[in-house]
Amino acid sequence: MLDCRELAIRLLKAEENHKAVSCITEKNPEFDIAMAYQVQNELVQLKKNQGHKILAYKMGITSQAKMKQMNINEPIYGYIFDYMNVPDEGELLIEDFIHPKVEAEIAFILAEDVEGPNMTMEEVLSKTEWVLPALEIIDSRYTDFVFKLPDVIADNTSAARVVFGKRRFRPNECELDEIGVTMFTNGELRADGVSAAVLGNPANSVAVLANMLSHNGKGKIAKGSIILSGGITEAIMVNKGDSVTANYDGMGSVSFQVR
Ligand code: 0L1
Ligand code: MG
């Protein structure tokens, strides 16, 4: 019988010590998605017990290509905590991570509660106060960034840091499915994409999140919540000394330095 709390403690220690661990599924092939969300719940509780607060929800594996690659038909979710927040144009210390990667996303801030099980993209848009560009830094706690789906769910979907852009927009100020993004490190183009890569429209990702939370008995996404809707670009490795900038069509840019 697997001990979800023990597994969560192991993942928390990996994060705190910046030292990768082997996948849960390696020794426990029976470890499945339902058990994985139980470990994630335990991990979230451990962080809360340490005094950390949830800052945002996050969606992961939101592109059709990535879902097909991992043989799933719905994305996964996790949580961004307050200690993960880095200001725009701020700094990351490479020592704080195992093998960090960055991906460009759109974040939503809700004007009203959003609740599944039948949430739609249109309803999300009508209940959204702001959208803004964001960079998510992911850092798998597993060796070589290699894992199966239940492993990454247990690992809070690799959440590590977030950098929100300084400018916010009303949802009707942007064509949310047509935002082109280019991401550079040290002036070199490393990744690009268009926001439709996120389930056709990042607002759809928020609707899917609400429906998944409802299905998992986690209730509504409350007014004022922030949601990271999923990667528009592929995630690229960051290294000490890197200067990372992502430019979002019509939404400005977001950047950080790695020391
Ligand atoms: O935010 C994400 O899309 C990450 C989900 C987990 C997959 C990964 O760590 O590459
Ligand atoms: Mg992400």
UniProtKB/TrEMBL annotation:
Does Lyase appear among the keywords?
Answer: yes
Q: Does the keyword Chaperone apply?
A: no
> Gene3D superfamilies, alphabetically?
Fumarylacetoacetase-like, C-terminal domain (3.90.850.10)
> Its domain of life?
Bacteria
Question: Where is the Fumarylacetoacetase-like C-terminal domain positioned along the sequence?
Answer: 99-258
Alphabetical UniProt keywords = Lyase
Q: What is this protein called?
A: 4-oxalocrotonate decarboxylase
